[in-house]
Protein 1
Amino acid sequence: MKKICLSLVGLYISLLQLHAQSAKDTTTYEAKKLAVEEVNLVSSLYGQTGDHSPVTGGIGTENVTDFANGLDLQLVGQDANAHKHTITFGLGFDHHTSASSAYVSKTGASKTGGTRIYPSVNWTVENLKRKNSFGVGLYYSNEYNYKSFGLDAEFSKKTNTNGEFNIKASAYLDKVKLIYPSELIPNTTVTDAGGGNTVYTTASGRTVSLSGGRRHDESALAIPSTPRNTFAVSLSFSQVFSQRLQGSITTDLVEQNGYLGLPFHRVYFTNDSVRVENLPGTRYKLPIGLRLNYFLGDKIIIRTFYRYYIDNWGIQSHTADIEIPFKITPFLSISPFYRYYTQTAAYYFAPYATHSFSDTYYTSNYALSAFNSNFFGAGIRIAPPGGILNTKLSSMEIRYGHYTQTTDLVSNIISVALKFK
Amino acid sequence: MKKNILIAICAGTICLATTSCKAVKEYQKSRINDSEMSLSGRKSQKNELNFQSYREGSSGANGGKNGGGCGCN
């Protein structure tokens, strides 16, 4: 019996060693000029209704429509040293209408629409011999009250055992324009500081000193902005477990600092007074996500995702997501999905007119309240080998989702993704 | 006896896990490489992840944004 056990252990160790031997890479790599590999176009139409807008202190319409479009162009090339270069240029364009934006002005006369433009560029170099890759990216986003500049760098390394490790560092340096609710805009004051100097305090609270008897400066009238920065380190590890099962674990360590509220969000207090929401200047977030995908039989795939999240504002959340693509043919699949989400409230949240005037931090933004949400829908994906109708359109996805929150927020989203090769 | 069975189960599970992680060859990855098996999100999910990150208090670890952006509306 002992001999059998020892033989089995020996056999197992030799099997391990056999698997551990990595074949020597004798492949010859040919240089390829950088050329367009694929073009992706994603468009989404989003509609939302609700009655807890933070613009009006946690009551009032939250109706939003958003039409988002993103185009990215991917170029791929290879040098003789087995370095594969991938450069992706992206351009996004969104247009939204938001009913609550009208009430930035007390009378409901503010504009309700806006556009956002966001270009990006990413460059990744993959070393095919060493099985690692390095990439950098730059991102920019601009809308009338918000600007964002982002950059990231990432490194990936494949293991000899069907695993891959990835580390990514990113930073977003944003600017929030201080557009206050009309009744809360500070009064403009002009003070004579003596000696021909004038101190001019703008309506938005910025102080400008003017000398030489000047009492007016156009630049001082511009609405000032204030920074909001986000720094994140993401770590992930993915692993193929068998011919049918693979999974990954991802965590992000996130620090945000600066102005983390929005200047046009009102908060009403128990004494009927009103202020702009006030949130702490730092926030630390820690989400951990697990994915597990399993190919069941020949036609069904089970895609699962779970995330636990915690931050120092008191929010803890759980997200569970399942999607079951069913292959009607090898090139046509339909994918029903369901997502459940639950979170606790931030320490600083209270509904309309329930905050105490003595509170240091306060918000009535229901995104920071305790709630559950359900999101379900289905997608269809077509990707025939010769392209759809023998054109360069290699794949098409259409996806619809219906979202409900226990805060009464309801939304619908439909997205179309086209890939040209 | 029960202890031995437990040890055997644990040892078996570890053996299975460690060998199965290494046993999949490139030519055996037809199912793993299927586009529906991808561990990253779908292109058509991008805007879903954006709206969820703005309508909910948490974000990240899912291929979507972990910060940055306004979500003003």
Protein 2
Amino acid sequence: MNRLEDQLTDAAEEARRQVTHVEARPASSVRSRMYRHRVLTGAAVAAGVFGLLGATAIVAKTDLTTAAAAPDSATAATATTVNAGETSSPATVAPVEESNPSGLRFNPDPANDDEERWSWVYTVTRIRDPESLPVVEGMDMQGHPVPLSGIREKLLTVQATVPAIRDAMALQSGLGEWSEHAFLLLGDGSDTMVYIGWNELESTDPISAEVWKEFNTTGVETLVITLPDLDTMSSVSERGGVRFLSNVTGHTADYVAETPSILATVRFFQLSDTYGALPIEATPEQMDTIAAEVFEALALERDDSDKAPTVTTTTVVESVDGPVSISDAEFEAAAGPYQQIIPGTAFLWAERDVSGFGTLSLLSGRQQFDGFDRAHACMFLAHDDPKPNASAECYLTEGEAYGFGLAMSGDGCDESGFYRMRFAGWGLEGIPSVHITLADGTEIVIPVENDVALGAWATDQGIDRIELVNATPEQKAAAAREFVLPAVACPVGAPGS
Amino acid sequence: MVVAQEEPAVTAAPFRLDFASFYQRELKPVIGLAFVLSGSRSGAEDLAQDAFLKAYKQWETVGAYDNPGAWVRRVVSNGSVSGFRRRKAEAKALARIGGSGFTVPDMSPDAVATWAAVRKLPKRQAQVIALRYYDRSSIADIARILEMSENTVKTHLQRAKQTLEAQLDEGGDHA
């Protein structure tokens, strides 16, 4: 054991030297990154399914007004996410056992009762009608509501076209960073559970796709419910570029439809305290039929474009009153200030606002990222924007401590005929304001404070130019070189056009 | 043409010197902790930044803890052992910078093998080893960080060492 002690001590010392090296690197470089604020619902299953991927514990709340209208409202309950207390303060993490006396529990390996494998426990929200699924709102760390409604669209579609699902009870649904899922209990009295999972493979990012596939076959250790192992599945058919596979055993049955960008899963198992412990009551023929109908309802299509498939996005900005129509006043109200800055350190983010837009998040640091040779990743995650085909661009000047970002929501005008645009610029030292001139000559002035400019507006006009007032020649050159101005215009006849 | 009223300009939060100090003090060890647990330099940076961002966002709560460092270590420990998440973040980052990574001095093969073996341990065991040896945390501190009893920490530590000894011996034999 002494040898091991020495080995660990030496390895730790070497690791510490690695970190020391970071500080010794030149201070002239910068690394910035932009993140979409990670959103996980209270439906802990998604995170469990994908290996604690989000690792962000968000206590979800159920819209009790909506839930109360549901047939089974008496049992509607608040979904609670518990992830080993990672990001929740002790006050927000409910004791697992006490909070969930009757919730589903999944353990892939009953012989291994390691506490980690029991971390994902959730209270079942019993809503019979997917349409009355509550508007489950995640809450970000500041307590702002985060609407999450993507799976609802799919459930409605599936429910409308798949007879077996029509009578099923949706027990849980949710949205993860790269996934959506729903758990349903078939309404035939068989206690057969159906899990519908929807996972983005990110066709625009082959590395990620490979990661996904690798993960599907090897990333089992931390999973509560694992994704199907594609290598062990039988290829059933291929239609229109969509590969269908299945693996049916007595206790679990997986059906997968794989496109270059989507992995859709329909999994059957028997309702039980332990996942996979009981034989499935549904017959293979029933399951074959249901899976095929679900895939058909989801209208999977091969997608070779570099756009995120619209089916993967949360396409509707939901509120209790239905889709949000953005007017001047509403937009102003929705897009309240929610940025925070530490001067010099420059943590900065823009939360998603109540209308569902505002996914820009920016974490820019000059001090903390000193030590990198070049400007690093800059992440406007356009494909994660709740609007389909959202575009967002981020520009970062190499080796310089400033950059610009521009995001445009959706694939066109919303119902009010507006595009919603956001601008973020940072490192704008010495620049009092940023002037954005729209196609019709309208000028939007965004003041710069603490070297940062953030602005949002709704318009039906494209951007003609962006001007940095009093910019240095280098800054001007960077802006001119790096901005690709989107040509946007609302279609003729669209409201507001 | 309609232009909605402009969003109010940036509203600066009260400058929290205490957070800045905390950040400066804890950044390096936290990155290191993420590094040994994730095995990825850029992934470790991401994980550490995530953890600090989360801490900052709820600094009123976290900052009031007796030991905010324990909180941020718990966040980064939990995040680091999720191999998928790290790889995903790293893949995204690399894809956007053209695949170039960072040039850092390599650790010795023994150190690399040791940490690789640690990362293969069950999550809690790996965390306990990293906190104990890399972070030099006491048993009591580890218990606070991971929110478990000291006896549980000792159990994880003991099991981890047994496994590591067998693995590393096996590796040495093969070598």
